[in-house]
Every structure is written in C-alpha cells, then in structure tokens.
Specification:
With 497 residues, the protein is of the alpha/beta class. It folds into 2 domains: 85 residues, Immunoglobulin-like; 370 residues, Glycosidases (TIM Barrel, Alpha-Beta Barrel). It has 15 helices and 25 strands. It is globular, with a radius of gyration of 23 Å.
Length: 497
C-alpha cells in the first residue's frame, strides 16, 4: 500500500513508487531510514514512528513530501504527516441509484467557516428537503488555501483549510447519521501546479497526450495506475465514502488494453461493493456507462437545452441547444437513472464570467422540469432557496507566475463573449472573489424551498415512465397520474393531478 501506514503504535510501514531515484530514505523524528528498491520501481521499508509524526522522503539527497501523503498539515510545500485511518471506523452506507438525489457543494463557500465541521450543521436540513447524498467538490490538498479543488497535488490528503482528515471523517459520519450518503469528486486527469514534487520520484506524466489544465498523467506506468486506484480505494475503505464522481474522464488518457477507469471501478467495488461510481464526460461520449462499468454519468445536454431556452444564450457550447423539442428529447433519454442532469452546477454557474446564478423568475420552472425528469437529479448548493450570490472562479496559487497566468487566462477566455470585457471578469486570485461566493442564507425564498420539497416528495411516488408533448412554447410532461405544464414564454409552471 502506497504511503505511510502504521503497523502498530511504534512502527510505520512506508511504500513509494520512485523508479527515478537512485537512493531513497524516509526522514522522521530526526533520523533517516533507508528504503529498499523492489520490482517495478517500488521502494519499501519501515521506521519507528506513529500517528501524528511528520516525515519527508529524501530522494537522492533532496527532501520531498510523499506523493501518496494522507495528511499535509502545512500545505503542499510542508512535510507529510502519518495518519492512522483505522481510528475512523467508517463504512459506506450504500446508495440506491434509482432513488438518489445529489446535492453538490463546495466546502469552502458552503458556510462562513468554510470547513467540514461548519457544513455538518446544515446536513439535517438537506435530508429534510429530500436530498439523499451530498456531492463534495474535490477536497485534495492543492496549492494555497482557496480554490475549486480541481488542481489537487496531494490527492489522498484532505485539504487542511477545510479541517483536514479527521474533520472530513466527522463530516462523513455526520452525513450518515442524517441518512445522507457522501459522494466525493476526484480528479485523475491531471494534477495542479507543483508537479515537480511527483517528477522527482518517477515519470508520472506523458507528452503523448495533453489536457486543457496541465500535463496528462501516464497510465501506461504501473506506479501511476496504483497511485490513482489506491486513492479511490482509500476514500471508500478508510473514510466510508459512498460514491465517487470522476472529473472530466474524457481527459483521462489510457492506451492500455483495459482502461484505468475500468480497472479502478473494479478495484473500488472489490473494496466496497455498493460504491456508486459516476463520471463527468463530454456530451456524446457514453464510455463511462457503456464500456467502463460506471453506474451513471453527467448528461449536460439537459442543462444546455433548458438554460438556452430560458436565457436565449447561444454562444460557445450553447450554439446547438435551446429548443423545446431538444429538451423533450433529453427528458425521454434512456437509461434515465444512469444520466445525471441539473439546472445548476459548479461549471455551469462558475464558468460564467461573473459566476452569476439564474434569474429569479426562472427558478420555479427550472426546478420543476429538473425534478420531474426521470433522470437522476443534481442540485447545486443554494439553488433550493434561490441563492443570489454568485459562484465565481477563485484560486490562491502560491507561485506568482501561475497566479498571473490564471488571471490572464480567465480574461482571455471571456474576451470574445458579448456583454463581457476583460475588466469585468473577477480576479480569481483576489480574496474578495472567494468571499463573494460564500452562501448567504439570510435572504432565502421559503416558498421556493417548499416547492423543492414538494417536488422531491412527488418524484419518490411517480413511475419512471414518461410521456412528453410540445405545443408551441409549452411543454407537457406526464408521469403516472401527474402532469407538468411548463410555459417557456410566460416562464410559469403548473402541476396537475
């Protein structure tokens, strides 16, 4: 098992994939302990240490954190810390795909505290609303304190700013006590800035492929495959996470006979058979559910049709969407429970220039169409009560060059969009951009929340079979003995029994 694993209260076993190193030792409690190279570039050894001890790996005389670190208490440039996950005693609760209602949240802005412990007190309200699982955006340790999480560097170490590993375990336990599952967003297509900390050990990356966000990981290397697969196993085995959401799997490149995400899914299910495995993928790509054995995948076509209809936006990837016939087709897609649909999510809000939420007059119609759909619904934090604060793109890169490149890239991304200029795009590095994205529960639409509760209660009673008709600007959707009538011109909605 990669990383530092306590054998007992006095000895810790260490394993590192480091084919690039000639000499490798672990430095802990003021002493170096040599590791022994074995087959495949893996190094193993043991040292006198215990839970809570800081350590570094010394590769050819240079100190580095552990690529499989489970705890980075002072960030990406500090030492790793030994974590005994056996103290958690957590097990997945199991999620039924045909009943699931997902609720996506970002730990850092979900509450004023921005911590796992801060989030716990709101879990009961989500369960009462009718949510069945919270989906946390990535929590892996990334450079700086603020960020969406998709630039994680130490992927097995819960971000210390959110409370670290022990706080995440408390969050999972509290969710289970409320009857909620926990789905964790994980990233296996790239790592964040600072990848020289991985390159010191071995060839983690390849130039045979490229991603939009950074160097592509090289899954032809056995050590890289284990680094990713063991990360997934860690969450379900040690933290009792009920499901995983794989980010942008179209950018996980693997030319091996068995794709790494298929192997990963098999290994995760061997560890926890009831784990829910879902994936984000480009529209039109069905490999996750048809080839890799995943339970479900994101189907952004639903969002694009609904959003373009209501806003008349037709730029960029909305160009081919925005018809009632197209929305009707999305509502009729099969297999319904294996397609995850939304009206809002972190991308569709946060990747707008100003991170603005949908207009208030659209919210009831959006909610009704989403929750009446037979597909698996995903809510985005705050939408159930009409959150008006934006969800903006924020970062805290500690490398000045990366920080400036991020600012410039964000301005350039929206330069060609009508209604936006470079000056209007919030500075992702500014703390104010992060603070502006924190939920504000002081102004809530209780009628809207009650409508969500009514819809979520109703969907549990309805058959999945659906009948859809389009009449001009009106959409009629029937499930069982209930009809949804949505008028996209007047932006009104009615449920008829």
């Amino acid at each position: 098992m990669l990383g530092a694993v306590p054998r007992d209260e006095k000895v810790v076993d260490f394993e590192v994939w480091a084919p690039a190193a000639s000499l490798l030792a672990v430095r802990v409690n003021g002493a170096d302990h040599a590791l022994v190279r074995e087959e495949g570039g893996f190094w193993r050894g043991a040292a006198p240490a215990r839970h809570g001890d800081d350590y570094l790996l010394v590769a050819d005389g240079v100190e580095w954190p552990d690529p499989a670190s489970r705890w980075q208490p002072t960030g990406v440039r500090g030492p790793s810390r030994v974590l005994d996950t056996s103290q958690f005693h957590l097990e997945p609760s199991g999620l039924a795909l045909d009943e699931i209602v997902l609720y996506e949240l970002h730990v850092g802005v979900f509450t004023e505290e921005g911590t796992f412990d801060g989030a716990i007190r709101h879990l009961g309200a989500l369960a009462e609303l009718g949510v069945t699982a919270v989906e946390a955006m990535p929590i892996a340790t990334f450079p700086g304190k603020r960020g969406w999480g998709y630039d994680g560097l130490y992927t097995s170490a819960p971000h210390q700013t959110y409370g670290g590993p022990e706080a995440f375990a408390r969050f999972v336990e509290a969710a289970h006590e409320e009857g909620l599952g926990v789905v964790l967003d994980v990233v296996y297509n790239h790592v964040g800035p600072g990848n020289e900390a991985l390159l010191a050990f071995g060839p983690y990356f390849t130039d045979r492929h490229e991603t939009f966000w950074g160097d592509a990981l090289d899954y032809s290397e056995g050590g890289v495959r284990e680094w990713a697969i063991q990360n997934a196993e860690l969450w379900v085995r040690d933290y009792g996470v009920d499901g995983l959401r794989f980010d942008a799997v179209h950018a996980v490149f693997d030319d091996s006979p068995r794709h790494v995400l298929a192997e990963l899914t098999d290994r995760v299910r061997a560890t926890a058979p009831r784990t829910l495995v879902t994936a984000e993928v480009e529209t039109g790509d069905l490999r996750p559910i048809e080839a890799w054995g995943h339970d479900a995948q994101w189907a952004d076509e639903f969002h694009h049709e609904l959003h373009a209809l209501l806003t008349e936006e037709r730029e960029s990837y909305y160009a081919d969407y925005g018809s009632l016939e197209g929305l009707a087709a999305q509502l009729s897609r099969e297999p319904a429970e294996r397609l995850i649909v939304c009206s809002q999510n972190h991308d569709q809000v946060g990747n707008r220039a100003a991170g603005d939420r949908p207009a208030s007059e659209e919210l009831r119609l959006r909610a009704a169409v989403l929750l009446f759909a037979p597909q698996t619904p995903l809510l985005f934090m705050g939408e159930e009560y009409g959150e008006r604060r934006p969800f903006q793109f924020f970062t805290d890169h500690i490398d000045p060059a990366i920080a400036e490149a991020t600012r410039e890239g964000r301005r350039r991304e929206f330069a060609g969009f009508a209604g936006f200029s470079g000056e209007e795009v919030p500075d992702p590095q500014a703390r104010s951009t992060f603070e502006a994205s924190k939920l504000d529960r002081s102004q809530t639409d209780e009628e809207l929340r009650a409508f969500y509760r009514e819809l979520l209660d109703l969907r549990r009673q309805l058959p999945r079979e659906i009948d859809v008709e389009v009449d001009g600007a009106r959409l009629r959707v029937r499930r069982g003995n209930v009809e949804l009538h949505a008028d996209f011109e007047a932006k009104t909605v009615e449920l008829r029994r």
